[in-house]
Design goal:
This protein is an all-alpha fold. It contains one helix and no strands. The longest helix has 94 residues.
Length: 97
């Protein structure tokens, strides 16, 4: 073989080697992108679940607030009736004396 043939073969082997290296890097990049896409999907799913949980929690809080307001209203009504009863008793005692 002459020098030109050896250098041509070496050049071809070099180009093929570079091609394999580029291909290997592309495959590695594609795998990393696939992993990143999967992580993004997972994070989106978790965010969606958390949004649903927050909505349920908010609805429960609103329901609890409504119940608390109702209970406070009943307590206020009871206090008004109690004040009226105490006032009536006080008037009865004052009227006797």
């Amino acid at each position: 073989m002459d020098v030109v043939s050896i250098s041509s073969v070496a050049s071809i082997v070099g180009v093929v080697g570079v091609g394999f290296s580029v291909l290997k890097e592309k495959i590695k990049h594609a795998e990393e992108m696939g992993q990143i896409k999967q992580q993004i999907k997972s994070l989106e799913k978790r965010a969606s679940e958390q949004d649903r949980n927050l909505l349920v929690f908010r609805e429960a809080l609103e329901s609890s607030n409504t119940d608390i307001r109702h209970d406070i209203s009943q307590i206020q009504q009871s206090i008004v009736r109690l004040e009226a009863a105490v006032s009536q008793i006080s008037q009865n005692i004052s009227g006797r004396g």
